[in-house]
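Hi W., the adenosine-5'-triphosphate complex you wanted:
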Amino acid sequence: MPSPRPLLIAGSIATDHLMTFQGKFEDSLVVEQLHKLSVSFLVDDLEIRRGGVAPNMCFGLGRLGLHPVLVGAAGEDFGDYRSWLERHGVDCSHVRISETKHTARFVCTTDSTMAQFASFYPGAMAEARHIELAPIVQAVGEPEYVLIGADDPDGMLRHTDECRQRGYAFIADPSQQLAFGEGDLIRRLVDGAALLFSNEYESHLIEQKTGWSADEVLSRVGVQVTTLGADGVRVRRRGKDDIVLPAAKDVRAVEPTGVGDAFRAGFLAALAWDVGLERAAQVGCVLAAYVVETVGTQEYSFTAEQFLGRLEHSYGPEAAADVRAHLS
Ligand SMILES: Nc1ncnc2c1ncn2[C@@H]1O[C@H](COP(=O)(O)OP(=O)(O)OP(=O)(O)O)[C@@H](O)[C@H]1O
Ligand SMILES: [Mg+2]
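Structure:
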C-alpha cells in the first residue's frame, strides 16, 4: 500500500478549564449593586480538558493510526499538550509558538442550576494569521487535503486563499465561526472546497449568510457532509444520490463535546484509506460514538477489534471487512 499523502489539520488549539460551584450564583448577586460587581465563588472542582478543534481531530486520526500534521498557534505553555498529541501520532512540529501569548483558554464556572460564567481568551490563536502553509508543505510533502477548521478568522481566510492559490485541495469546516462571520467571509471560506463539513444547523446558517440556496452551496463544493446529531449523517454530491446513514447503534450518550470533530477524524481517515464515502461516513459515526460515551474530547480508546466490532454491529460485516486491512 502506498503511504497516504499528508493531511494538514488547521484550527484552534485550546484548553478548557471547567469549574463547578455547588451553590447558586443568583444568591450572591445584589441587583442594586451590579455596577460595583465583585464576587468570588469558592469552587470545589477544576477540570482541565484538552480541546481546540484541530487537536481534537488530530487525536482521532492518530487513534486510527494516521499521522496528521497539526497547523495552528499556541503559547509557551503548549509543552504538555504537545507531548500528549505526539504520543498519539500527531505531528506538532509545525505548530507556531507565540512569544507573548498563552494558548487559547476557555474558562467556565457552572453553578448548581447550570447557570454559567464563562470567558474565552483567544491568546496565541490570533497568530494563526501569521502561519503560511507553503513551508509546511515543503517539509511534509504535497497534502491530500488541508482542513480549515474554526480558528482566528483572518487565519482561516489566509489558509483558504493560500490553498486556492497553490492548488492544495481544501476542506471547509467553519463550524463555530459561522455564528460570527459575515456572508462575505463565509463565501470565501466555502467556495471551491473539495469537501464542506457542518452540522444541520450550520448548513442552514451557511445558506442564510451566503445567500446561496442549498443547491448553490453544493455546486460550489465537491462533497457536502452534514451531520445530523443522533440521527446520523447526510452526504451530498452533485448528480449522484445522497448517502443518508443512521448514527452508530447502541450509543450511551454521556457528554457530546467534540463529537463533530471525532466524526470528521473518522471520515478523513477512511478517505485516506480510499474506502469510499459511505464507509467514510460510517467510520466517522463510530469514532463519534466513542467521544459521546466519554467525558472530554480526547479520552477515548479502543482496540482495532473493538472498533471493527462496532462498525460491523452498526453497518454490517462488509463495512468491517473493508476497514480491517487499514486498522492494526
Ligand atoms: N447522541 C448521539 N448518539 C449517537 N451518535 C451521535 C450522537 N450525537 C452525535 N452523534 C454522531 O456524531 C456525529 C456528529 O454529531 P453532531 O451533528 O451533533 O455534530 P456537531 O453538532 O458538530 O457537534 P459538536 O459541534 O458539539 O461537536 C453524528 O453524525 C453522529 O454520527
Ligand atoms: Mg460542530
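The first strand starts at residue 7 and ends at 10.

W.
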